[in-house]
């Protein structure tokens, strides 16, 4: 870590002069994410689309072809099977059956009868109705929108509206990029995925606030220094902290992705991606955008005078 600190302290990224490369890369991520979302959509989990989810464990390595033929011939509509972590674990997704809970339970019993001689353990059985799924979708969207607005309002009061604007732009980039990651990879998007999106937003704004605080401090200290130079200096001075925090976070998330099991793999992989784009967006997107929103040195000086009085 000491080596990283020394390297990042001595680095001069000149990020403001290179901002167009970062802007172009950010635009590419947003366009690719929106394109994947529109073309493929999200692989919604049972949480959102409703239906039946059955996780089973077989005696030996699961024969997906055999299981698929057994369940697919029951006339239950769309059925998907996938290996879930270990070769012996299988996740069965069945579309919601017409009728009330009795119809869902009947479908579950049909599946159990069809695969009973190869299954040794039913690890979980979940039922989600369409109304609950719709409510969860609406709640997930509302939670994301309110979180972004709340963060923007906090940054507005903490700094100035200009900082809030660039922070919101960077956060929207991170959220769209993370959702695009799910659309592109086909990972299941469920309630844990919404938590991943909100966690990425929280991580990203933490980096942005740290750098913005240094920008404000340097605007007070170097009143005659050009704005671009102040921004470059602020990025360089906080680079060691950003690098060390990002690397240590990634170490934990990679360990979760590898050893955490299939249940949280989508969550942890999304966080790995989110930490990467959240870190670069704080450095290369949010701060350089301050050049265009007209940060007022007078407002920063007035705030410092009020704080000292």
From TrEMBL:
GO cellular component: plasma membrane
Assembly, per entry: Forms a complex with SecD. Part of the essential Sec protein translocation apparatus which comprises SecA, SecYEG and auxiliary proteins SecDF-YajC and YidC.
Phylogenetic classification of the source organism: Bacteria, Pseudomonadati, Pseudomonadota, Alphaproteobacteria, Rhodospirillales
Gene name in the database record: secF
Organism: Limibacillus halophilus
Protein name per the record: Protein-export membrane protein SecF
Functional description taken from the UniProt entry: Part of the Sec protein translocase complex. Interacts with the SecYEG preprotein conducting channel. SecDF uses the proton motive force (PMF) to complete protein translocation after the ATP-dependent function of SecA.
Subcellular location: Cell membrane
Membrane topology: Multi-pass membrane protein
Classification via PANTHER family: PROTEIN TRANSLOCASE SUBUNIT SECF, PROTEIN-EXPORT MEMBRANE PROTEIN SEC
A GO biological process held by the record: protein targeting
